[in-house]
Amino acid sequence: MGWATLIRARAVAGLRAGGFATGLAAAAWVTTAVAPARAQDATPAPHSVGVPSRDGSFTPAQRAEIVAILRDALRTDPSILRDAVGALQADESRQQAGATRDALATHRQALVGTAGDPAAGDARGRPTVVEFYDTRCPYCRRMVPVMAELVRAMPTLRVVYKDIPILGPGSTLQAKALLSALALGGDTAYLRLQDAVMKDTAAPTDATIRADAQAAGLDPDRILAGMGSPAVQARIDANLALSQALHVEGTPALVIGNQLIPGAIGVDDLKAAVERAAE
Fold first, then answer.
1. What is the pLDDT of residue 110?
2. pTM of the prediction?
3. Which end of the chain is more exposed for a tag (fewer CB within 10 A), N or C?
4. Domains plus CATH for the chain?
């Protein structure tokens, strides 16, 4: 096999496996691995491609020739680029999954052990499902009956809600109302108002909060008065900070065991994720 052909073969394999940098590294590996024998043969000139200098580096001319080999390979066989992109995406996914697992482990206490977080299901249940959600998010609203069915089907489960109002002032208004209800009447009041708020399609205002509180059987005046509490704002701030630390990019986002699941999912998939976490 010719010298340039050997470099090309290694470079193409590297490109398919991990992109341009990997291809360049593979080509360089060929030259550094075979360079001593080639140098003894004295067939190429001392600075021909593939024969690095004594310190193991390549001259600009050598590097340019290797890059030219890589580019020619890409022009000749475009499928190399597709494979390289796929390899890069797979590698990024693996790295992201690892980073997510590390972040979930680091913030486990904040996720499942924050005192006073609103919750449904068994207060001492295991495992715990954590839902980051925004009341104005249509996909979060779609999850309401799914989560209710999950709790009915798995009565030993615990569900923790993390309000993250990311869709504007209306979301913030409703999140404050829910947390005001939590402070006044615990999980029961929170869940009753949550049900009313998530069914309300009107733009949130003090008037809609009052109407939703009445529909939930709660005192509207006390709900509105409690929305300005520093503790309410502190919990929202903590939830937002936690979501950022976990790289939550949208709602809903579910944390189940060591998994962060973005987006709305069906109850069967949700049950399966809970069962895996319980193993």
1. 96
2. 0.70
3. C
4. 3-94 (no CATH), 109-278 (3.40.30.10)
